[in-house]
Design brief:
The protein contains nine helices and 18 strands. The protein is an alpha+beta fold. The strands form four sheets. Strands 2-6-7-1-5-4-3 form a seven-stranded antiparallel beta sheet. It has a seven-stranded mixed beta sheet with strand order 14-13-8-9-10-17-18. The chain is globular. One of its GO terms (molecular function) is endonuclease activity.
């Protein structure tokens, strides 16, 4: 059995009865965020340093706004702000001069309702009646109730148990609950003893190479189109009080569409690996892609840095890991060093071999092939330790199948099939 966590979306059945209480909690979370944001700014101005998460909690635990929420809920607000500042600081350190620090959340009747998180001490679950008792903070309690009693409904195939966290999320129209549960999943035997290598990229989101010579490309054009559409000027407006309501909704839709793409891609890759009887996948580990050989920050240029920081390679790899584990498939994060420069046919390495986007030409052996597939084969070899094969560029590796994401079906299919359906 594999022990992991799953997040289930739940509709609030008695929304009308609990929406005011959830609004109060959401507004309080925004106020606490703003108090902490001001504290960080003061500390930055005085010392040139950003206070740590532990410092924030210690300094603000006696603040009035901290007592509006359950203590663990307030802690989570401060944790999220600290995480946001750390993410901004790393981007600036890595050369992203366009990155902005986390801002204040808008005040007044129209300010966004922040996500509120309850951890285990603030949750009581009635699984028989599908109800959750969510604790309020001291300042929001009154003589009628010390908690919010939310009735929920999930998909019929979902069993809610072992809840670790409950997140109340404002989706732009109403509140919804995200239930984070600990689950045990039966792990089957591996589909086979074959292996596969995955090269992650930007133009092609990934390329995969199998033992039998098959290779596949998965373009990221859908993600680019979505980002262009949902971040147009009329959507991405931001005034003195932060992004507009329309811009917030656009960003939420973009986030949901990207998340669906990554889930669908991870599921499809696992299905393809099962068909190819793969028991082990090597995937490029890009955790150090923002560093050069000496460990210093690497500058990819203004446009390159922006693309890189929006490239959620770790998110996809994590999804692939847990979906593959359910079927007994092991995922190895493997160094990508020199895999894009090395010829998978003869093993020689030259910077000039990658002559243009998508094309790899080896001046030593004359092999011409897709550059991303070449990288996938080299990553694949890191776990098989097999030597280069001279005739590889004459086979299926030179003609990879391109799979496109069909937004209507929510699934991937060969490009010729998606073209016919559209």
């Amino acid at each position: 059995m594999l022990e992991t966590t799953r997040t289930y979306l739940a509709k609030i059945v008695n929304h009308q009865q609990v929406s005011d209480d959830l609004d109060d909690c959401g507004h309080s979370a925004s106020k606490l965020w703003n108090v902490a944001r001001y504290h960080i700014q003061q500390e930055w101005d005085d010392t040139g340093e950003i206070p740590s998460e532990a410092d924030l909690k210690r300094e603000l635990k006696d603040h009035e706004r901290y007592s509006d929420l359950h203590s663990q809920s307030s802690q989570r607000v401060l944790e999220e702000l600290a995480e946001s500042f750390n993410g901004w600081f790393k981007k600036r350190k890595n050369g992203d001069t366009d990155a902005n620090p986390p801002g204040y959340r808008k005040r007044g009747d129209n300010h966004p309702r922040s996500t509120v998180t309850w951890k285990q001490n603030g949750i009581k679950h009635d699984s028989k009646h599908n109800q959750l008792r969510l604790s309020k903070g001291f300042n929001l309690k009154n003589h009628r109730s010390d908690f919010i009693l939310a009735a929920y409904k999930t998909r019929p195939d979902v069993t809610v148990e072992n809840i670790q966290q409950v997140r109340a999320v404002w989706n732009g129209d109403r509140w919804e609950l995200h239930l984070v549960c600990k689950v045990e999943i039966p792990v089957g035997d591996a589909p086979g003893d074959n292996t596969a290598g995955i090269d992650l990229g930007i133009s092609n989101y990934l390329a995969i190479a199998y033992d039998d010579g098959d290779a596949e490309l998965y373009p990221g054009n859908v993600l680019k189109q979505d980002k262009h559409y949902f971040t147009r000027d009329e959507y991405d407006t931001e005034g003195d009080n932060g992004p507009s309501k329309r811009a917030l909704r656009a960003r939420q839709r973009l986030s949901r569409r990207k998340d669906h793409f990554l889930h669908a891609l991870a599921k499809h890759i696992v299905e393809q690996c099962i068909d190819h009887e793969v028991g082990r996948i090597a995937i490029g580990d890009l955790s150090r892609i923002r560093e050069d050989k000496n460990g210093d920050s690497r500058n990819w240029g203004k446009r390159g840095n922006k693309k890189l920081h929006g490239w959620e390679f770790d998110r996809f790899t994590t999804l692939l890991e847990y979906k593959a584990e359910e079927h007994g498939i092991l995922v190895d994060r493997t160094s990508e060093r020199d895999t894009s420069k090395t010829c998978s046919c003869c093993g020689r390495k030259r910077d000039a071999n990658r002559v243009e986007r998508g094309l790899y030409v080896c001046e030593s052996c004359g092999a011409t092939m897709n550059a991303d597939v070449n990288g996938a084969v080299n990553i694949h070899r890191k776990i098989t330790q097999s030597p280069p094969t001279e005739d590889m560029s004459n086979g299926r590796l030179a003609r990879p199948v391109a799979y496109l994401f069909n937004q209507t079906s929510g699934r991937f299919a060969p490009s010729e099939q998606v073209g016919c359906e559209s």
